[in-house]
Amino acid sequence: MLHTVRWIAFILAVLLLIISPYLPTGVPGLLVIIAALSIWFRTAEKWLSIALGFIGVLGLIGILPVFVLYAAILIVTTKELVFSLTGGKTIEYALSFICALLITAFVMEYLGEQSWLSAVVGATVCVLLHSILGSQRNATAIELVVVALVMLLIEDLEYEAAFPLVGTAVVIAFGFSYFAYRLKTADIPGLFSAALVGVILIVFAGISWFLIMLAFFILGAVATRYQMDYKRSLHVEEAKGGARGYVNVFANGLVSVCAAIGYGVTQHPVFIAAYLGSVATAAADTVAGEIGVCSGKPRLITTLQPVPEGTNGGVSFLGEVAGLFGAIFISACGVLLGVADFSLFVAAMIGGFIGTNLDSLLGELFENKHMWGNAGTNFLATLGGAIITAVLWAILSFFTG
């Protein structure tokens, strides 16, 4: 029955797309609502019908553009059809992404749209969510709503990104992400989340920003593998052999992505400071944690009492030195790649070092009390590092003219 619903949804979306240029405003959304009601009464797919009805209402009242309405439906149904026909092997993730892009290109051509960034982000988010949610009952409904809303967000930014730029970003970001997957430093969700981050960085801010993030990834991978056998003996090694998943990617990269988008839209240099500060914090924290844990008993950052290795909030002299090196490394990359000047270098170095200690403090005060997990600590630490760096840069810029 579910396969039948997928085919019906796909065919209906194509038919509605064909007649949409001849329909008054809002009518395409109304037709999607009618289709959702039909699915509600004729099948057991209640969540899918609710999701269709939701985006149909957004289309009816003019919030969701016709392009996003139909593209979202076709991206999700195309992905569902590919996985249902091929059995869900690893290669099908790439095939689903490619087919989703092709069908979205057809939608753009037919409607006279040029929204390649929305298409790429929508297709990537769809496959990423599938890799996370798998065969959960309401997975398709979640994918449909999230893809539509994310594409709407990209459209509302009104950021001009031509096909050559977006295409180059896809090749570079997915190329490096696939390489990381083959090296077992990222799993499938990590691959697509890292590629999504890479595409956004390149499109909104440029290849240099992506290379800074790549430098962090390489540094983190090297640090993770440092004395791995010893870490295993202490049971403090990264899960899955250090392969990064989507939670790790977004916890460490969400602030950076927001900074890149902010810079792309406004061109204000404060977003450069925020970006370097967030990446420097993530790098400093990763290196400090992975190397510092091998230096013997750490001390709790709040009381300086000895604690077992791997304890949240534990710090050591070697870890602090390693963290400072990580912050300096990322800041120096910013200078070498022409992204930062000396004032930004100093601000990011200090902000990143403070950020990694903020991570330890948050881990002790909140994570150890189970108020949130490690991802929450990482996100808040990178946010703090970004803000501190931006403030320091503003102060330095004021006094240096």
UniProtKB/TrEMBL annotation:
Keywords: Membrane, Transmembrane, Transmembrane helix. InterPro entries: DUF92_TMEM19. It is found in: Membrane. The chain crosses the membrane at residues 6-39, 51-73, 93-111, 139-154, 161-181, 193-224, 245-266, 315-338, 344-366, 378-399. It comes from the Archaea. It is a multi-pass membrane protein. Pfam families: DUF92. One of its GO terms (cellular component) is membrane. PANTHER family: TRANSMEMBRANE PROTEIN 19 (PTHR13353). Belongs to the TMEM19 family. This is TIGR00297 family protein. It comes from Methanospirillum hungatei JF-1 (strain ATCC 27890 / DSM 864 / NBRC 100397 / JF-1).
